[in-house]
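FIELD: query
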Amino acid sequence: MANRKENIKKINDELELMSDEELDQVAGGSYKETAGDTRFLNDLAGLCDRFGATKAFFYNFTVSDEAAKGWSKIGITVKTGFSDSNLYYLNGEKISRQQAFDYACKKFGKNLNDLPEGKGGYSL
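FIELD: result
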C-alpha cells in the first residue's frame, strides 16, 4: 500500500503530463487566474513569488495568500476563490481583473504588452 508521500508524487506526476486545458477541466479556472496574478505581480515589480497552475491547484491557500499580499502592495484587494472568478477591489469598489492589471501597470509606468507573458498571458 502506498503512503501519502508516494500518492502525492503520483498525482503530481500525472498533473505534469496534463495540458493547461485539461487542468481547467479538473477544477475551473480561478486557481489558474491566481497563478497568473503571481506571475504578473512578480514580472511587474517583484511584488510576490511566481507560481504555476499546478502549484496553485495543490497549494491554493498559500498561492492565494501570496497573490493577495502582492496586490495589497499597490492598493488592490483581491478575494480569490478556487473555482469562482477572483474579485478585485480598488478603494472599496469592485473592478475587473483587466482593470486591476491596467492600474498596476500604470502605477509602475509599464505596459502589459512589454511584460514577459504580455497581453494574452497571465491567464487573462
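FIELD: remark
DSSP finds six helices and three strands in the chain.
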